[in-house]
Structure formats: C-alpha cells, structure tokens
Amino acid sequence: MFTGIIQSVGRIGKIEPRGGDTRLSIQVGKLDMADVQLGDSIAVNGVCLTAVRFDQQSFDADVSVETLRVTTLGSLHVGAPVNLEKALTPTTRLGGHLVSGHVDGIGEVISKKEAARAWQYTLRAPQAIKRYIAQKGSICVDGISLTVNAVHDTDFELTIVPHTQNETTIAHWQVGTQVNLEVDLLARYLERLLQAGGDEIRDNSLTTALLTRAGFITGQP
Length: 221
Hints:
Blueprint lengths: L7 E11 L2 E7 L13 E4 L2 E8 L3 E6 L1 H6 L10 E6 L18 E11 L2 E7 L13 E4 L2 E4 L2 E3 L2 E6 L1 H6 L10 E6 L1 H12 L11 H6 L8
Antiparallel strand pairs: 1-2, 1-6, 2-5, 3-4, 3-6, 4-5, 7-8, 7-13, 8-12, 9-10, 9-13, 11-12
Organism: Permianibacter aggregans
Function: Catalyzes the dismutation of two molecules of 6,7-dimethyl-8-ribityllumazine, resulting in the formation of riboflavin and 5-amino-6-(D-ribitylamino)uracil.
Enzyme class: transferase
C-alpha cells in the first residue's frame, strides 16, 4: 500500500527485455534506500513493483507482460522521469489517500492551462472507470494522490499547485501524455457492496441499515 505522496522523481536507467517481459533498472534520485530490503514494493508511476536488486542509487524490478499491457510502463524510454514512492509503514503519515499500486486504466492529458500560479489539467479516463471518478474525490495519477475538481463524462479536471508540479513528473505533462490511473479504493468496495446487495438495493437505494450490516457503519451516532 502507498499514500500517493511522491518521495522522489527517478529516471529509467536501463530497459532489458527478458523472454517477453521486461526488467527495468531505475535510478532513484533522492529516494532514501537505507531501509529498503530485497523484495520490497516501490511504486513507479503508480505501479507497484518488487525490488529484485538495489543499491543506494538504483533498483531493478521485473515487469510482467500483463503490467506492460495495462500500464504506461511499456512505453517508457531510457532517461524517462518516473514518480517513486516506497510502501507505507504503520507510522507513515497518510498525507494523500490509500493507494494499492494496481492500475485501473490509462488516461490521457487533453488540455493544460495556467491558473494563477497553479496549472489546470483536463484528463480523459477510459469509459470503464469513469463511474468511479467523483467531484472532490481522490484519484491516483501516475502514483500521485490528487483531488478531482470537476467531472464531465469521461473527462475530469485537476488543479496542480506549484509544489506538486515541481516535485513530480507533472512538470513533463503535455497534451497527449498518457498516464496511469487508479481509482479510490472506497469506490471499488462500495460498488461491490451494491452488487452483492441483491434484492435490498435493486431500487438503487443505499440505506443506513444496509451499510451497518456490511460493516461500513459501527457504533452509535
């Protein structure tokens, strides 16, 4: 699990094809590797990868055919910047939102404009995941925990403050840039709850009683 708060912008150091899949070597930049162990998870542009070799400057990770198919990792080139975050610990501050590192789809930047000192971006999501994206809700874009400002069918808007722009790969986004999208975990589980509700929610009603029985509400108000 991750928080979506980027700890370093690294770069792709080497791309090595291996029998259909790929091994990436990633230069970690300012990421502190002192507490990393073999087999640890590190999010790379929002994709949870396993460190199979590491030192203080870089780590290697194998990327499966499936991951190459459903994320943007397969389109990266040597030297490409990537967002990095180590897996959270029980003492980690949850400054963003809970992120699994499992990408739901690939989005695309369709507009970019200045908004005072910030930047406003419009992204287009795949049709299959648009129902999970809510105004003022959270979404993970290339591993970055961001707040959705507005939603228009499959398009959604983000306002990026200067710090986030400068400390992540967002500084490199242009119209046409493809990005990894992961929707909010709560949206996934709520949909599953609705699907499992059977006759209780066929009229699309979501009651306090149903949420209580499902364990989403506990105790007394």
